[in-house]
Amino acid sequence: MAKNKANKGFLYGLLAGGVVGSVTALLFAPKSGRELRKDIADGAQQVGEQTVRIAGQVGESTTRLAKQVASGGAAIADKAKETTSNVIDSVRNWKRGEERSERLEVNQEVAAGQEENEEATERTTIS
After folding, report:
1. How is the chain split into domains, by residue range?
2. Span of 22-26, 46-50, 64-68, 79-83 with lowest mean pLDDT
3. pLDDT value of residue 126
4. What contacts 117, CB < 8 A, 6 or more positions away?
């Protein structure tokens, strides 16, 4: 996330520097007022077009990231429900006094579910 902020700051700085540099170059160029105004208008139009293009790219990236987060969240929620169900079943079986081996199997399934949940969380966090 810090990298995105740095990229955004760099992009804003680049855009501002381009505008300031363009206007400064135009103001010091030996041209008539009419030519200078036309050049400034053309430069402003180019900056506006670039800004629209960059905003579109940012919007697409944001949409893609939101979809990734949503799908990862759904997977984590499903794993949490499954793990909870396994724990509830394990407790019920334990209360009923079932065989120790059956409890061990359930506990192993719960542990495996928890590991899968942690791995899914790590994959979502990394993405």
Report:
1. 2-126
2. 22-26
3. 60
4. 76, 79, 80, 83
As a whole number of angstroms, the distance between CA 62 and CA 56 comes to 10
Asked whether the beta carbons of 18 and 47 are under 8 A apart, the reply is yes
Q: What is the 3-state secondary structure (H, E, C) of the chain?
A: CHHHHHHHHHHHHHHHHHHHHHHHHHHHCCCCHHHHHHHHHHHHHHHHHHHHHHHHHHHHHHHHHHHHHHHHHHHHHHHHHHHHHHHHHHHHHHHHCCCHHHHHHHHHHHHHHHHHHHHHHHHHHHC
- Across the chain, mean pLDDT equals 75
Most confident of 26-35, 61-70, 103-112: 61-70
The sign of the CA dihedral 101, 107, 111, 114 is positive
